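## retry 2 of 3
previous attempt timed out at serialization; input unchanged, resubmitting
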Amino acid sequence: MHNPPMAQEFTTSYLKEVTDNFRRYKRLAEQAMQQVPDEGLTTALDPESNSIATIVKHLSGNMHSRWTDFLTTDGEKPSRNRDGEFESPPRSRAEMMAAWESGWKLLFAALASLTEDDLCRTVTIRTEPHSVMQAISRHIAHCTYHIGQIVFLAKHLAHDRWKTLSVPRGKSADYNAQVASGQASRF
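## retry succeeded, writing output
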């Protein structure tokens, strides 16, 4: 059985759309991580790969840097230790999830404080100017890149216990019929 997708809501608000998308991808990663045994969270597939816990630590560090004082300071804070984000992953699920939530909390608070008029303002990331809209788009691309890695690893580590997060293989026709009848909505 798969998880029902979130209904798409028509909007012309960029901020509402990106906030909804961030929430959707956050939930997708959380549903994937829930399926991984605790010991699997720190498992890397090879020495050059990252574990789920390491990816979470990196995403959290990135969010803290980007979304703290978003409109007034460079998105790459001098205090950030990016290389350290790939060392010493959180040791427990609770520690990992605390880092995860703290990053997302900053992101959602920053997005909630913005107005549509702010989208054309200029912010910097590594001294490069970006419109607020570009900075948000850059960040959603970064997050979804890493969330895809989390889902891939979770599926691998959950093995035969994996429950799909979207339309199950071989069930597209059933799913499309449910959408057409109003029993399901598209992701």
